[in-house]
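QA checklist item 7 of 12: single-chain prediction sanity check.
[x] sequence parsed
[x] length recorded as 76
[x] structure emitted
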Amino acid sequence: MMRALLRLIVAGLLMAGAVAVGAGGFLAVFILLLRMDLVDRPLPLPWLGAAAAVALLAGLGLAVLVDRRAFRRGGA
C-alpha cells in the first residue's frame, strides 16, 4: 500500500515536471517568434489551452511510461 502511494506521488511529480517543461518550451518558442517578428499578436486563449492540454498529456504519458518500467523491474 505504501509503495503504491509512493509510486503515485512520484508519477504526479513527473507529470508536473513534464508539464512545466512543456509549457516553458512552448513559451520560449512563442517569445522567440515574437522577437523575430514572425507573430504580430499574442495567441488567442484557445491556442494556449490546447498547448497546455498537449503538455499535460505528454507529462501523463511520461509518468505512465516511467511507472510501467519501474513495475517491470520489480520496484513495487
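[x] summary fact logged: The radius of gyration is 17 Å.
[ ] second reviewer sign-off
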